[in-house]
Specification:
Low-confidence stretches: 276-316
Mean pLDDT: 82
Distance between the termini: 50 Å
Order of helices and strands: EHEEEEEEHHEHHEEHHEHEHHHHHHEHE
CATH topology of the largest domain: Rossmann fold
Number of strands: 14
CATH superfamily of the largest domain: Glycogen Phosphorylase B
Number of domains: 2
Radius of gyration: 21 Å
Helix content: 25-40%
CATH class of the largest domain: Alpha Beta
Strand content: 15-25%
Largest sheet: 8 strands, mixed
Strand order of the largest sheet: 3-6-7-2-1-8-9-12
Length: 360
């Protein structure tokens, strides 16, 4: 951490950055809204700590962007996919409010994108795109003298692996989850090792330790484990301060409410419904964060207040962070209803808690 007289440089990575009206931004969901608002909130929170904050937003350069507004940088990060190495182009733009954005472009990887399509529907095309852009971002970050790297959602979750352990020992990396429903789960091709080798990662070293998810890759799980291992923080962002919607509101719903909502969404009876019946400890473990709150947390959070979800998942030998979260926030004596009690019982044992796991 720099002294109070120095500038703290932050690389903020996200697939959407908002700012749609500028011709240089994308917003498909809430991610774009947050990234548009968060930098200013972070700057404000940092100023209260007497820190001068310099944030660069890193994002793909989608094909519909007005490239006439961009300035090309003399940076050529190398990317390898399937054994083929090629350079990415890197551009920058400073918006009227002073916010700088860095864009990464490769015609083959991104020519198909438009304002309404920036996420590939095919999971393998998506994996290769996230890997390519992630390598380009890592190459840029490694040359940028940043003090902190802040990742937003699993699309950029491969970046810590491309940065490497030596870099992660020197620079803190944090990870914010915007929607845990989407985790970057990708079917294997030729096994886990060869799947990772194709995207320029050492499969033998990384697959079982980070990525393996019932014989698929899980990018969110891998990023969570790597960020925790390196000493970073993991947060969520949704809902409002009162917790009237988003993750916090969902955690307050009864089993019947959750079941009914799932039935409405699926148009069929849901297979599993998990309910946390006690709110004790909910505020400190699972409370959603808005941009200003998230900014304050990133600068003021104490190490001993961070709940080690990732290590707990590994300890219990399970791959489901949602089940793990339910058990972590449960208090002794709580009841958890599930149609598959096996994993939850294993998690309960690892947590040394006395819970009623009820099959339904």
């Amino acid at each position: 951490m720099p002294t109070k007289q120095q500038t703290l440089r932050v690389a903020m990575l996200a697939w959407e950055i908002g700012r749609v009206g500028s011709g240089l931004g994308a917003k498909i969901g809430g991610l774009g809204t947050i990234i548009e608002e968060l930098p200013a909130a972070l700057v404000k929170a940092a100023r209260e700590e007497n820190i001068d904050l310099d944030i660069e937003i890193l994002s793909p350069c989608f094909a519909h962007y007005d490239k006439h507004q961009l300035t090309r940088l003399d940076v050529h990060p190398q990317v390898t996919l399937g054994g083929h190495t090629f350079p990415f182009e890197v551009y920058e733009h400073v918006f009227e409010d002073g916010q700088k954005a860095i864009y990464f472009w490769d015609h083959l990887q991104l020519h198909w994108t438009n304002a309404n399509a920036i996420y590939p529907s095919d999971p393998w095309l998506a994996l290769e795109l996230y890997a390519a852009v992630g390598q380009a971002m890592a190459g840029y970050i490694a040359q940028g003298h940043f003090h902190t790297v802040h990742l937003h959602d699993y699309h950029v979750g491969l970046v810590p692996f491309y940065l490497g352990d030596e870099y992660l020992q020197e620079v803190p990396v944090h990870f914010t989850i915007h929607n845990a429903t989407y985790q970057g789960i990708t079917p294997l091709r030729g096994g886990g090792y060869s799947t990772l080798e194709r995207i320029n990662l050492p499969g033998v070293k990384l697959f079982h330790k980070y990525f393996d998810f019932f014989d698929n890759l899980n990018l969110m799980k891998a990023c969570m484990l790597k960020v925790y291992e390196s000493g970073g923080k993991i947060t969520t962002v949704s809902g409002d301060l009162a917790g009237t919607w988003g993750y916090a509101a969902e955690l307050r719903e009864s089993h019947a409410q959750v079941w009914a909502r799932a039935f409405q969404q699926k148009h069929a009876p849901p297979g599993e419904v998990f309910v946390h019946l006690s709110l004790r400890g909910l505020r400190s473990v699972a409370r959603p964060l808005l941009p200003g709150e998230l900014a304050t947390i990133l600068f003021k959070i104490e190490r001993n207040s961070f709940h080690n979800l990732c290590a707990f998942v590994g300890l219990a030998k399970t791959s489901d962070p949602i089940d793990a979260t339910i058990v972590l926030i449960a208090s002794n004596g709580d009841r958890i209803l599930t149609s598959d009690p096996r994993d939850l019982k294993r998690l309960m044992s690892a947590a040394r808690k006395r819970l009623a796991i009820i099959a339904c």
